[in-house]
Amino acid sequence: MLSNLMIPAVLFFALGVIARVIKSDLKFPPELAKALSIYLLMSIGLHGGVELAKADLGSAVSAIVWALLLGFGMPVIGYGLLTATRRVGPLDAAAIAAHYGSVSAGTFLAAMAWLDTQGLAYETYPLIMLAVMESPAIVVGLLLAARARQKVRAAAGSNGTATTNGRGEDTTSLRSLLHGAFTNGSVVILVGCMAIGAISLPNAMDKLKPFIDDIFMGALCLFLFEMGMEAARRLQDFKRVGAILAVFGIVMPIVGGAVGALIGSLALDFSVGGATLVAVLAASASYIAVPPAMRLAVPEANPSLYLTLSLGITFPFNVVLGIPLYHAMVTFLAGV
C-alpha cells in the first residue's frame, strides 16, 4: 500500500499539507492556481475529445446514461445518510449531498496519474462521464433544498420568499439553476475542449502534444501542491464539522466508490483502469463547481460544513487512500 503512494502527484499533495501545518510563509498565487485548473481541464478535455472521435457511439451513450444516473442518484443517497445522523438540518444536508453527487477534477487527475504509474490502461469514456456528472448533482441538491425549505416554512407557519439576486431575479428558479449548472466554467472548458479534440484534424492535434502532454504531470503536481495547502487550511475547521460528519466524509466516498466499481466493472464492462476511474468519479466530492451554486441558491446552509467535508476530509482521503482502495474493489470484481 505504501508503495502505491510514492508517486510525485501524491507526494506534492503531502508537501502542501506539511507546508501549511508547519506554518511556512510559502504562498501560492491564486491566479496561478486558477490557471493550472484551466490548463488541466483543457488538457484532459482535448485528450477525451481525440479518443471520443475513435469511440463506439453505443458505448459512449451507455457511459453518459450511467453518469447521469450517478449524478442524480448519489446526492439522494448522501442526503438519506445525513438526515439519518440527525446532526444537521435538512438544508445543510441538501447542500452537502450535492457536493457528493458531483465530481472532483483534482481527484480524477490524481487517479489518472496513479493508474499511469501502475501501467494500467483505461478507456476514454470516464472523461465523458466527468463532464456529464458536474451538473446533475447541483440540480438535485437544489431540489432537495427546495423541498427542505418548504418543510421548514410549513413548520414555522410562514410562506417565505424566494431567494433573489441583486437584480431581483429568482436565483432558485429551475431556469436559473439549470443555466448556472450547465454554464459553470469548468463544464464549459471541459465540454468545449472535448468538442475541439473530437473535430480537430489528427496532424493538427499532434502539434499540441508538447503542451498538453509533456508538461501535464508537472502542472498536476503544482495543482495538487496548492490543493494540499488548501486542504490543510480546511482541516482547521474540523471541530466545526463534528465527529459524525467527519465519519460521513470518509464513509460516503467509500459507498460511492463501491457503487462506481460495480457500475464500471459489471454494467459498463470497462477494463480495471477504466472501472477504477468510474469508482473515483462516484466517490469524489466537488469543491469547485458546487460550492458557489450552493452559496447562491441555498444561503441558509453553512459553507464551513460542506467545504470542510469535501476539501478537508474527502479529498485528502481519496487522494491518499481512496484511489488504491477503489482499484482493489474493481480488481476483486474483475476476478484478477
From TrEMBL:
Keywords: Membrane, Transmembrane, Transmembrane helix. The chain crosses the membrane at residues 6-23, 35-53, 59-82, 94-115, 127-146, 177-199, 211-229, 241-264, 270-293, 305-326. It comes from the Bacteria. It holds the Pfam family Sbt_1. PANTHER family: SLR1512 PROTEIN (PTHR40400:SF1). This is Sodium-dependent bicarbonate transport family permease. It comes from Roseospira navarrensis.
